């Protein structure tokens, strides 16, 4: 065989191995799906699907690791480069010039090799192990955006915003506390165990291990219809805290670049600046692209072609991620806010078919991505090339995260209770303490860079934390809920109806400002935003009533007319009046069946200008209730309630 | 900065460039979608979306090529390997050992580089050009499976099978003729131009350039509701001929490996064997996994959870591709047959929601993949690193494909007309001659391997052929239809109703065998399969009536009972009685609105065992009409016909 043919053979072998690997992973995924179905069918709840994926992944990883020999493929070639040729940076690709081939008529053969990553020295891997070991970027670019976007897109915004203050406290202050506590404990314990682990490494580890996972516990909460406030706490915290942990870890790295040893105020403020900058930038990009999609879907008639509309929606959402990454920001944070914006504005403009399509599409991609990630975590425990196991370090990590979680939840909850009318119960605190599972984000952050010894310790430790928390805490969620006597089977908003504060504030600022409560300043801010949203953002970005012509001052009338579509003026399309937030609540994980009728019940009659404006707001775009704990639900949510509270329209 | 940090920086830069690239591509895709919408909105038809994607791609490719400098990223490093270290094969990856870093405490830094491919020597690319130049495997593993699966899944099987013989003739014999004619002409012309191009290269080129593209013309046919038989010819030919061209090109390569110079009978039969083997193997894998999905979806109650069901369906279909590739066969061919099997059997078992979900999902992925492929073809014309331009070669190619298409369509059509009752009109032949567009498959096959000079000539030539045929032939399809006076606006099956041969054969062999026609032998074979399908395959694999208990001999009763589900016995679920083929016809490209009611009209009454079996077959799973030109449609298709032929139930 000629050399050219050898090279083709080699490319073919690599290709076959890759296919076999993907096939194996697909096989496990299929097995997981069938097992999930069996569990759902038999109503078993002791292992959740994420735990299941991980366990199956581990089994396969073990087989691959110990069952395959290292010598079936061409061994890797070691080159000893000298440092001169990359005076500043290592090369991004290597060209292997193989010289002229005597048998063939062609001159030279050059093979190109692309930079894959930094590896442990002298490591020989079997080809299948090599193939199973994906690029960490694969997670960040393909899997995570779907998971996080779906989180934002399907967010129960009503409950989320009702507990906005508490969630922000847990997510921002709580995660920072957790990061510091873990960092501190790890610093102390690594000194004791004499592991090389710099202070910067400690805080970096603290940041990545503080990202809690929204998948497992929430699926169970959703199944059991747990108390909506508890749901909002756990969901909001885990979604936002992923974003916080990512940005925090990047800030710690930034800090490390400016201050190599000891504390430096300059570096500290620079990293603080980077934290704020990344967060604000990502928020801005996400919100901007979300609004842009809303504008496009409002002012073009693309909704006549649902396929094009869905494609547009999908591509815009995905390009948010890439835009943020290309700008050097964090794509995942941007995608989260993009998802929220899309659900809040764009969703109202979509055709009925596209609403369904987008929801189902993201539900499916999210489901597949989630299971794939956990599966991959399982496989990696055995096949990942760069982890370094150290029992003492792993035990220290568990100790650190338990203490950190404790220092996060209880003090903050007690602090929040000082200001809250509706106190956070101690059973909720215990449950939140228990729900601190670690998942995809922590794992992905840890494998992203494994260049140093310290980083490799982090990888193994994070793997164990993910495995143990998902399988054990995930498995014991249901018993824990029973043990803590937390109400399950709560219908949407029944919660709100049972406590005494059912003051109907509608949607307008006037009424809100009449409700004088202790935290007026914050309430005022939120109410301002809410009013702005209802009066300008929603009329501008969606086809909902009221129109800009009704809400803007008389001087801006020509502009307002320009920005109002005919559909909006006619207000005849019933699909546009449906409350998008309720839609989201209904569809989430296909559970709340029986509420499907709400959206038709809450259809408003064609708007007549004799009605007072505040009434119109209440009927129409009711999804923007950006309020707090003491704010109450809107008229049209009550319609379908079962039991004595229901039907008090 | 320490070395570790430099490496991190480098990884980060690569990452940012990648993101920027993806963002650019997403941007063009979005622009294409908006332009498509505008064209559809304004009812312009002179440029089709695939041509549009390609033109936009070319513009961007040009900007990237000439607008970016080659020196912003670390240059590639050239290594001169000596041939001893890879005695048999080139290494699959290189490890660059950078030696100890003086500033850091760690021992060594090793960078890993993975084999990317064979490149042109001494080529410097700007980083953005490098990033835009995707791996050809990306097409084969990610894009093409979706396009081809959708083709199989949404195939109008009724019309396809009615013209089965003709389609197979065009696809198999026609493509082989085309391959030989192109090969011969290119051999002659390259000798004249003194280009180094071996005989084997000629036939390889003939094979890859013979793959016609089903995308552009069919979208227009579909829009205009062109004559169903013509649609079936063009669709069937282009879908199957992709498969034939792929396998053919692989066979030619196999031939080349065994016979380095001149003709060798041994090598010829080996490559013929490889052709048959690959085709049969791929068919077997595709059909098997399709049937397996049908069995799973029938015997588990997974349809209670549409999300899981859709995920299962999706993963099974995708794993077909990987299974075939891992087995060394052709994934695309397997996926095509898997799609057909899924549509024929599994589709009947899905829940109503999953039917919708899967159709919409594959429609979307197909749409995105198609546009992306054409976009990428456009970009590659400027950025692909390995093409070699030669005007004479390109002109020869155009001459060769025109002659080859001529030798394919006209002789075969005339030959077919000898045996056909319903002759292929000359206007149809002219239109088929004109519809020989080249697209994604030809392009992907050509860039898959660019190791030799000859291959690089093929790449540039294929690019030009794809560009010219898609933009020009695609753009002139509508005028051409008018010019050839081919009927458009034909309703489904109106065609069948207007010709005289409306003998209702139902589904059973007895009736078919009574229809004595010239081609009895073939009719008998097809009828045998049809009978087997209706009596055993459908009852076993789907929830359709009749059940196996009704069709199998008495001795197999216990087994038959075991393989019959309760749903099937009750036959109460209306969704299962709907004719899946009609569903497919309706949904294809969202066009044939107004026929939606067929599926409910054709619902059968609950089966009572007093009815004769043949009657039951006719009512129930009528989609399996695996007949030829003279076979007629089933009872339940007629229901909805407009005009005097309609309503003769």
The largest chain-to-chain contact, stated as pair and per-chain residue counts, equals: A-B, 111 and 110 residues
The spatial strand order of the largest sheet of chain A comes to 2-3
Question: Which structural class is indicated by helix and strand composition of chain A?
Answer: mainly alpha
Q: Give the overall average pLDDT of chain A.
A: 72
Write the layout of secondary structure elements.
The structure is a homodimer of 649-residue chains.
Chain A: H1 3-41, H2 49-67, E1 77-80, E2 93-97, E3 110-119, H3 127-132, H4 136-153, H5 157-162, H6 164-193, H7 199-209, H8 215-224, H9 228-258, H10 265-299, H11 306-326, H12 331-349, H13 352-383, H14 391-419, H15 426-434, H16 440-447, H17 453-475, H18 477-483, H19 494-498, H20 509-514, H21 520-541, H22 548-551, H23 557-562, H24 566-570, H25 574-577, H26 580-587, H27 598-601, H28 613-619, H29 635-638
Antiparallel strand pairs in A: 2-3
Describe the model.
By secondary structure, the first copy, chain A, is mainly α. Chain A has 29 helices and 3 strands. A two-stranded antiparallel ribbon of chain A has the order 2-3. Chains A and B meet through helix 1, strand 1, strand 2, strand 3 and helix 11 of A and helix 1, strand 1, strand 2, strand 3 and helix 11 of B.
Using brief descriptors, characterize the structure shown.
mainly alpha, two-stranded antiparallel ribbon, 649 residues, homodimer, 66% helix, globular, 29 helices, 3% strand, disordered C terminus
């Amino acid at each position: 065989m000629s050399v050219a043919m050898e090279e083709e053979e080699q490319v073919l072998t690599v290709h076959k191995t890759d296919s076999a690997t993907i096939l194996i992973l697909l096989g496990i995924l299929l097995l997981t799906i069938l097992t999930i179905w069996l569990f759902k069918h038999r109503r078993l709840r002791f292992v959740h699907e994420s735990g299941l994926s991980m366990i199956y992944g581990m089994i396969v990883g073990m087989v691959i690791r110990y069952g395959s020999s290292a010598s079936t493929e061409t061994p890797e070639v070691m080159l000893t480069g000298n440092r001169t040729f990359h005076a500043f940076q290592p090369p991004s690709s290597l060209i292997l010039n193989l010289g002229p081939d005597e048998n063939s008529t062609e001159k030279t053969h050059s093979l190109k090799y692309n930079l894959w990553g930094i590896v442990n020295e002298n490591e020989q891997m079997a080809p299948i192990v090599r193939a199973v070991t994906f690029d960490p970027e694969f997670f960040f670019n393909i899997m995570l955006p779907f998971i996080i976007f779906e989180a934002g897109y399907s967010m129960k915004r009503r409950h989320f915003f009702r507990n906005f203050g508490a969630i922000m406290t847990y997510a921002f202050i709580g995660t920072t506390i957790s990061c510091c506590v873990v960092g501190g404990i790890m610093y102390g314990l690594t000194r004791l165990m004499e592991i090389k682990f710099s202070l910067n490494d400690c805080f970096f580890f603290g940041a990545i291990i503080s990202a809690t996972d929204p998948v497992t516990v929430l699926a169970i909460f959703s199944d059991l219809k747990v108390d909506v406030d508890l749901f909002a706490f756990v969901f909001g915290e885990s979604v936002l805290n992923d974003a916080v942990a990512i940005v925090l870890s990047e800030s710690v790295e930034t800090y490390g670049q400016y201050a190599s040893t000891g504390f430096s105020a300059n570096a500290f403020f620079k990293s603080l600046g980077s934290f704020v900058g990344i967060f604000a930038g990502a928020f801005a990009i996400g919100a901007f692209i979300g609004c842009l999609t809303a504008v496009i879907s409002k002012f073009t008639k693309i909704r006549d072609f649902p396929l094009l509309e869905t494609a547009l929606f999908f591509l815009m959402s995905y390009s948010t991620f890439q835009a943020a990454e290309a700008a050097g920001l964090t794509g995942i944070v941007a995608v989260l806010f993009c998802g929220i914006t899309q659900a809040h504005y764009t969703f109202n403009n979509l055709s009925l078919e596209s609403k369904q399509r987008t929801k189902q599409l993201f539900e499916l991609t999210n489901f597949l991505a989630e299971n794939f990630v956990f599966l991959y975590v399982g496989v990696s425990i055995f096949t990942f090339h760069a982890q370094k196991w150290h029992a003492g370090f792993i035990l220290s990590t568990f100790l650190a995260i338990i203490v950190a979680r404790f220092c996060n939840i209880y003090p903050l909850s007690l602090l929040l209770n000082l200001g809250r009318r509706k106190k956070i119960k101690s059973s909720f605190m215990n449950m939140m303490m228990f729900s601190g599972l670690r998942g995809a984000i922590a794992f992905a952050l840890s494998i992203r860079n494994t260049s140093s010894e310290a980083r490799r310790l982090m990888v193994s430790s994070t793997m164990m934390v993910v495995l143990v928390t998902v399988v054990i805490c995930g498995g014991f969620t249901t018993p824990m809920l029973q043990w803590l006597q937390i109400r399950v089977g709560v219908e949407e908003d029944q919660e709100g109806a049972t406590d005494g504060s059912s003051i109907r504030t509608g949607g307008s600022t006037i009424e809100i400002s009449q409700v004088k409560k202790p935290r007026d300043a914050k309430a005022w801010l939120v109410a301002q935003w809410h009013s702005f949203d209802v009066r300008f953002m929603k009329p501008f970005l969606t086809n909902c009533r009221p129109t800009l012509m009704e809400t803007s001052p008389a001087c801006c009338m020509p502009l307002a007319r320009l920005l109002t579509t005919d559909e909006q003026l006619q207000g005849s399309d019933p699909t546009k009046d449906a409350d998008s937030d309720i839609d989201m609540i209904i569809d989430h994980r296909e559970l709340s069946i029986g509420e499907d009728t709400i959206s038709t019940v809450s259809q408003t009659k064609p708007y007549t200008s004799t009605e007072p404006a505040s009434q119109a707001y209440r009927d129409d775009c009711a999804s923007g209730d950006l309020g707090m704990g003491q704010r109450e639900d809107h008229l049209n949510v009550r319609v379908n309630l079962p039991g004595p509270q229901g039907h008090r329209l």
